[in-house]
Amino acid sequence: MKIGTTKELKNHEYRVGLTPDNVQTLVANGHEVFVETHAGEGAGFEDAEYISNGATIISTPAEVFATCDMIVKVKEPEKEEYGYLREGQILYTYLHLAPNRELTNVLLEKGVKAVAYETMEDELGNLPCLRPMSQIAGRLSVQEGAKFLEKGFGGRGILLGGVPGVERGRIVIIGGGVAGTYAAKAAIGIDAQVTLLDVNANRLSYLEDIFGSSITTMYSTEANIRKALQEADIVIGSVLIPGAAAPKLIKREHLKLMKKGAVIVDIAIDQGGCCETSRVTTHDDPIYTEEGVVHYCVGNMPGAVPRTSTIALTNTTLKYAVDIANLGLEEACRRDSGLAAGVNIYGGKCVNRNVADSLGLEYTELDTLLA
Which of 232, 250, 268, 316 might form a disulfide with 246, Cβ 3.0–4.6 angstroms? Predict the structure, then answer.
C-alpha cells in the first residue's frame, strides 16, 4: 500500500502523523511511504531522517494525496485539503465530526473511508488512540488555566498553590475520565484545592482511592455543578461521549454565579465544548471573556508540545496503521472490532451511531457494507 503524511495546516499545529521510526516499520512491512517536505520539522523530525528510514519526500500535499491509498494525519483536513480527497481513499486521523457538518458532508460526498482515532476501541472498550492526547490535554489544562488566571490576561490574579497565610486557589474539574484524571494530577502537583465531578459513582470511588484526601469528589448534578462553579477559580471541562457532541453542562446563566476573572478551560471543545459559551480558539488568540469569565478553548491543545504529542500519539496509532496497510481496511475491521469502531464514514454512509445522531444523519451498520 502507498501511505502518506502531510504537514498539518491547523493554526500552530506542529504534530505530524508519522515519525521516521513509523516509516521504517511500514517500509519493513512492504509498503511505500510518501512524506510532504518539512512535514515533521515542527515536531523535530527532519526530511533527512524520513529519507534514511525509507520514505520518499514529495514537495506538495496535493501530490501526497494524489499518490497515496491511505493518508495518515493528526487533525481533520482543513478546507484547503478537501479538494485533495478522493473516492476509496483511507483517511486515518482525528476527525471530531459531531460539530463539523461541512467536513462530514465532504467525506460522504467523496466516498472517503474515514477512520477516526477518537472512536477506536481496545478489547476493554477504552479509547487507546484518544488516551495519550487526553493525558497531555489534561496536564496542559492546568498549566494554561494557571497562566490565564493572571491579572494581565483578565484573570483573578490568583496563585493556585498559594503561600503561607493565603488560601490556595480552587480548580473544579467536570468529568473524571482520562483528561480529568490527568488534570487532577497536575492540579494536586501545584497544591491547588481540587474538586472533581462525574456521573459515574464507581469512577468517583476509584479516583478517591487514587488521590485520597487530595481531592473532593462530587456526583455531577445541576445543583452540584452550580455550587462548584461558585467556588471555582479555574473550571476544566473534560466530559466525553465518544463520537458525539459534548453535552452543554455549563450554561451561560451559570457564568453569572462565577467569580469575575475565573477561567474556564474547555478540553471538550473538539467535540463542540461542554460550556454553552465556548467557541473554538487558536494558540495565536487563545482566550476571550464572556460574562466576566475568561474562556480558553483551543481546539488542538497538545499541538503546543508537538514532540511529546507526536511520539505519544504514534505509539498507539501505528499498530492499527500497519494492520490496515497489511490487510486492507475491510479485512482489518473484520478481524478487529475496535478498529471497526473507528470507522466513521464508509462508502458514502455514516457508520458511527453517535456521529449520525449528533448530525441528524442516517446511520448504517458498517458490517452490512463490509458484507
Answer: 268
96 catalytic residue (yes or no): yes
Query: Which residue in the list 233, 270, 323, 336 is annotated as catalytic?
Result: 270
Q: Look up 283 and say whether it is catalytic.
A: no
127 near 242, Cβ under 8 Å? yes
At residue 230, φ and ψ (nearest 5 deg) are: -65, -30
Per-residue pLDDT tens digits for 217-270: 999 999 999 999 999 999 999 998 888 999 999 999 999 999 999 999 999 999
Cβ-proximal residues to 239 (8 Å cutoff; 6+ apart), any chain = 174, 175, 177, 246, 247, 249, 268, 274
Residue 344 contacts residue 97 (beta carbons within 8 Å) = yes
Catalytic-role residue among 96, 254, 295, 336: 96
d(CA 175, CA 191): 20
Structural domains in the chain? Answer: 2-119+305-370 (3.40.50.720), 134-299 (3.40.50.720)
Radius of gyration of the chain measured on its C-alpha atoms: 21
In this prediction the pTM is: 0.90
